[in-house]
Structures are given as structure tokens and as C-alpha cells.
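Hi everyone,

Forwarding the result from last night's run.
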Amino acid sequence: MLNFIGSFPADEEETICAVFGDLSGIISGGASVSIPVNIIREPNTYGAPAAGSDLFVVDCGLLHSSILQTLLTGQNNLPAGVGAGVVHIRTNPTSTATWHSLQDDLNGPTGPNEVDLYSVVLHEALHLLGFASRIGLGGDAIGGGDLFSDWDRFLYSMNINRPLIMPNPLGPCCNSHKFNHTAFPNMPQDLSGGCSMNIAFFDGTTAIAPVNNINLTPSSDFEMANKLSHLDKNCSASGENFVMHPGIAQGEERRHITDPELAILCNLGYNAVGGCTSCLVLATDDNIQSPIILTGPGANNPLFIPFSTLLANDAYPAGTIPVYLSGCGFDAGIQVTPVAGGFNVTGLTPGIWSFCYTISGCAGACEEATVTIVVQNTGIDTDCEPLDCNLLCFGTFEGLSPRGAVITLNWGFPISI
């Protein structure tokens, strides 16, 4: 679902819609889900003609595209009303050119005084889908906290056969990663070069595409992330005309996603694209709707929570079984016991409590999620007297100990074409 913010000519809106419609057909595999994306009209200050950014919500581990998470799990963790991504588009692409829309195709291909809108929006849309690094100038993740992206775990130096980031067994969650400072001790120089730097998107066996922006020598976190978020066609031995090449010339068209770019989408988790074995797992937090009632009518202590309930909003390989993660969550008032097919949760003290579980995929992929559950002394009595009092009796708040959770918003930095 596209939310247009600002005034766009009808032919430009039609072109932008066509991009996302075509892309949806590639990545969705027929799934029907509404994913809001904001398209914002920008004034002619003549920086980049367009820029795109995903919006991530996570406090540990690798950042997933919000579009991917919604597509695979049916929900995302974004606050209500917040788009899964945003694309900024200038009124005119440059001071010497206008936009070329699909309607303009009736008059011929993109001319020398035009910039092809379809190509530019497709480029930005792929950034939203996950073609985006969070590696900063010194190597550590932008904003701190070792919050790298899914994309970053595929970045690999073919010269020294080392990944740019690696799992961090001492991190706060099972999916923690850290920059490989041992292999790249001289940052930013180690990642500031041209094609000879030989950084690739590597799936474990094959260097799928060269990652670079050879015209950019980074001097800031944003510039390093920008350099590592593109596929430079000048570094491609087979000469692919990548949609994700940085920059586009007036009169140029790049409307077709290349085979390497489709392979990257598959490895990022868009399984409907086909042609790869994705190791992606996504674990989404759960709020158990049925409370644990300790005494009286309706007492149900312990409460059995099936694995199928927890996995219903996750993405995982066949045969996955959630594993209880001790020492995680606010669990002082409950006791969690893994049993066949699920967890038995025994309430000890009234309150709002939580526990965690992990799911795993291939190649060490791992995610953890938090399960929140309410424990209360007695059931809620709705049988008020007298019956015609027009009041509803919802019991008391006895014993409820409030607990809080912090949602951390991490903007994906805008990556300009």
C-alpha cells in the first residue's frame, strides 16, 4: 500500500505504483498482505534525485527488512500507522532534466534530458527490501549496539576469504554479530578502494555480485554504508547492468532486475523468488491472550502453550522446534517447562511476566522471541448482580505488577542512488 505524501503528477504516480506492483509479483509468491510504504515528494534542492530507507524495529541481532518480516510472518513490530519504508523523490531529478514516466514511453525511450523514474524507484525499492548495509566508517554498526543488517552478513572479501561481520558468541542474543576487526584492522582504508578491493555478496559458495561504489571514498558512517549497499557494474566481469549500480545517467534505463540481484533477494529471505536455499529465520514476539488463573472457577495453572501457537507468526524451516531460553525475560513469577509439543507455564505470582525461546535455521541462523503472559489470582467474573444493572463487572486489579518493554526504532540510513 503506497501512501503518497505531496503532490505527484498522475503519470508519475502510475509509474511508481507499477514498480511496486511488478516487484510484489516477484517477491510475494501469491501472498496477500498489505505493507504500507510512504512516497514523499521533495523540493528541488538537487542532491540525489531519490533516496530510500527501510524502518527497522529490533533491539538485538541482525536487522530484517520490515517488508520481509511482514511478508513472511503476516505482521511487523512497527507502531501502528508507521510505514515499513519510505522513498523520497525530488520534483525534478536534476537541474537539467525532468522525470521520464511510463506514459512518456509512448513518445520513445528516455531522452538525454530525462531521468527514468521507473529505474530510479526500482533501485530505491530494492534498498527497502534489504539491499542496505549498516557498517559504519570504523566498521562497527551505525548507531552502536552491533545492529547490523541481514545484507551485511553476506558481505565477504574474496581477496582474503573473510566475512566483514561474524557471529558474536558473547553478544546479548543468539543472533548477535560483530565487525571482523581482525581481518580488517585498518578502517576505513580497508574498505575504501575500487574494484580491486573485491568485496562481494557471497552466499557461502558463490560470489554472486560485486559490492562497491568505486566513485565513493567514504569519510562518514553514511558514506561507508552507501558504498557497501550497491552493486557496481564496473566491477562485474560478466558486465551485468545492475539495477543496484550507484548512480544513473540521464537517458539511461535499468528496469530489469538481473539474475544476480534475484539470487540476492532469495538469499535475503524472499523465498518466492526461488533458486536458493535461504537460511533466514524470523521470530516474532507473542502476547498470550489467555491468562493463567491461579484459583477459583476457570483455574488453569499450569497453562500449556503449543509450539504451533508460537510459530504461527514466525518464519522458519520445516521441523523447527522452539527452544526455551533461560535467563531471558521477566520470568520471576512463572516457571516454564518444555514438554512434548509446547511449554507448560506455571504461574507463581500474579503479574505480567515473560519468557524467551529461540528458533534456528541453517548456517547458524538463529532468532529469539519474547512471550508475554498474564498471571492473575482469580478469573474475571462477568455475571454481575443484578442482571439488569447495565454494568459490567471486570473483577479487580489485585496483584497485577506492571512490566514494561522498550521498542527501539532504528532508521535505516537513506541510501541514495
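The chain has two domains: 2-280+410-416, 286-379.

Cheers,
N.
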